[in-house]
Amino acid sequence: MSTLTQTPPDAPTGDRPPRRRRRVRVDWGRYHTWAVLAWLFAPILFMIAFSFNDPAGRHNITWQGFTLKWYQNAFAHSELNEAMFNSVSIALLTMVLAGGLGTLLGLALGRFSFRGKQLTNLVMFAAISAPEVVLGAALLSTFLMMNVTTGYWTTVIAHVMFCVSFVAITVRARVITLDPRLEEAARDLGAGPWDTFRLVTLPMLSPAIMAGGLLAFALSIDDYIITSFVSGDVTTFPLWIWGATRVGIPPQVNVMGTLLFAVGLLMAVINIVTARRRNAA
Amino acid sequence: MNRKITPYVLVLPAWAWLALFFVVPIGGMLSLSLTTGNVVTGFQQTFEVGNYATAVGTYWEQILRSLFYGACATLVCIALGYPMAYWIAFRGGAYKSTYLLLVLLPFFVSFVLRTISWRFFLADNGVVLGTLKNIGLLPDGFAVLNSAPAVILGLAYNFLPFMVLPIYAVLERMDPHLVEAAHDLYSNRIQAFARVILPVSLPGVFAGVLMTFIPTSADYVNASVLGGTHNTMIGNVIQTQYLVNNNYPIAASITFVLMGLLLVGIFSYARALGTEKVMEVHA
């Protein structure tokens, strides 16, 4: 590869020597990337650092001293615990439901041509692109008009609705790349359609189904806007934090944020390590 | 199973869910936007089109501000995200996926918590501004929060990966020989970028614009947390009218106006590029 293909466009140009040769150049792209990453991580590092802070008043914004007491009684706020429990259980239900529905949809879109396929693509596209505030407002309008009391299950319904298209797209991308000859081979060896699906297609799809399900879990547990419209009296983790800003956020929120971040980091590292190992093998 | 009906059986459950809880509710909201009444007396369907005039007449300022903030945040995302995606795709080498992971990692912390963390980080007497004021680098009254730039940067912060990822995806797939060919044909770096790399990466930029402009212009979390009372966006209005004032007809009308504005944009966009193509980059 030539050196020129790798240079960033914003690097200083100047007169080019007649023969291309390597010369030392300031790698502005690297500095830029690191600066943006620093920006992205600043509030996260702040949050982690201040989970060890011992604040004087209600507001945990200036450094007072190191303490581990928020970790020792991380679960001292029963309302916060309940909100966290709601968030996790809603996310798990969403993962299973949106994962199931989305997988079937992705399979159909990737494998078959059928009437209404274009319309399906359009509806999925609209559901993904529509701003959350519109999705939340539309659902709430309908629940109001049908006199449905909003709460836990309306939240699950909403989460599955906005996650299902993401799962379908993830699964469809995988279905399209599958080698149809593998299924044909299974048929030739005497497997029926169901056995072919169960023993050949499904195992090959499982990474995409897993990825789609995890994406649904992540989208659900993080959601604030749609949830705020359809959750009624039920509180989730983001909703609880939002409500607490007025009276001062307890440092336990920093602790839980740090723990969630650590879980995400751990999963990402495991993912990288297993991918490396799979590639190496 | 009959191969002909199989796709319909597979599609049915998801279709039913999306129809019942996405398509029908949009219709429900349309119907609600044309009613009159209040929470006490109930809402009657009177096909009151005047709700839209009231909504736009009252909140045009927030509508324009939202579109403006969304556009600014999208431009910030391009300015920061494009060089980053470019560098990772062409210069990331063996660490490409690690860099991508670093871009995504902050987003494992919940959206609301991240935004609130910014507010505490930049508080008037917090770790950054308080320290700078103590050592005399900033005047006492200096503040970052409760301003338009704070909201715009907050929006850009929260949606940056949606710009970086699609641009990265197209640049990473690009054949490096194309750039070499451009150089062999005596283009300099700027020409090679403008005439080879940029056109290839445009679908990624388009997808990124779609995925940042729509959510940023409709967001209200950043405006509430970082913008104070003078920088409210249309999302704030919708949320307040629905959840605090219970003024549903006006709330539904204003949501429809927002949706209409954005949908016109999306569909002209998708038509120009092809839906499948946009969604491919997207995924």
Question: What features would you describe in this structure?
Answer:
The complex is a heterodimer of chains A (281) and B (283). Chain A has eleven helices and no strands. By secondary structure, chain A is mostly helical. Residues 1-7 of chain A have low confidence and may be disordered. Chain B has 283 residues and is mainly alpha-helical. Chain B contains twelve helices and two strands. Chain B has helices at 6-33, 50-91, 96-104, 111-121, 127-134, 148-173, 176-184, 189-217, 221-226, 234-244, 248-273, 275-282, and strands spanning 35-38, 42-45. In chain B, helix 2 runs antiparallel to helix 8 (189-217), helix 2 crosses helix 11 (248-273) and helix 7 runs antiparallel to helix 8 (189-217). The chains are: A mainly alpha (281), B mainly alpha (283). The interface between A and B is large, with 108 and 100 residues.
Notable features of this structure?
heterodimer; A: 281 residues; mainly alpha; 11 helices; disordered N terminus; B: 283 residues; MetI-like fold; two-stranded antiparallel ribbon; 12 helices; 2 strands
